[in-house]
Amino acid sequence: MTKIAPAEGKLGILIPGMGAVTTTVIAGVEAIKRGLSAPIGSVTQMSTIRLGKRTDNQTPRIKDFVPLATLNDLEFGCWDIFGDNCYEAALPPRGDAKEGWDNIDIFGWMGCPMQIKVDFLCRDSILAAPLVLDLVLFMDLAQRAGMRGVQEWLSFYFKAPMTAPGLYPEHDLFIQLMKLKNTLRWMKGEQLITHLGMEYYD
Predict the structure, then answer these.
(1) What is the pTM of this model?
(2) Which CATH number, 3.40.50.720, 3.30.300.30, 2.60.40.10, 3.20.20.20, labels domain 11-201?
């Protein structure tokens, strides 16, 4: 088990720029703290982690499994080239809504061509805010656990994952999430999970 220093005191988050993502992160955290919203999309706040076998029925929330800083511990500071405060910077919305059309060509049985059409309507800051929150909490956890250098276990959050020199970066999203959760298990001295599942069929 990795020795993890406790999350004591406040965790200061200094953010350069008060654009849509910054103001959405701050407003979202404050709304969650006041019980006005749920932390939808945040792995640290909503996701669970399986411990042991599936038949053991041990699936605590990640925030209850590892000693993360709580949302009440977070203190935000911002710097921007403009003189607006966070409220002024958030209003009026500055083109946060996006629509993306994608045509994905696929091939089925016997090479039969098919196409998936996706019309994705989203808001960039709403998608990014829980990722920012998770990265802050996980990076703080890594620092308190004495982890240094490239944090490959956080590749789940990045388009271009970093690795130690000479290593092939893992781009498979599902493997990245498994690596993240296995790192948390490793920190707490729990058995790593391969998802092979053969032990259930002996």
Answers:
(1) 0.85
(2) 3.40.50.720
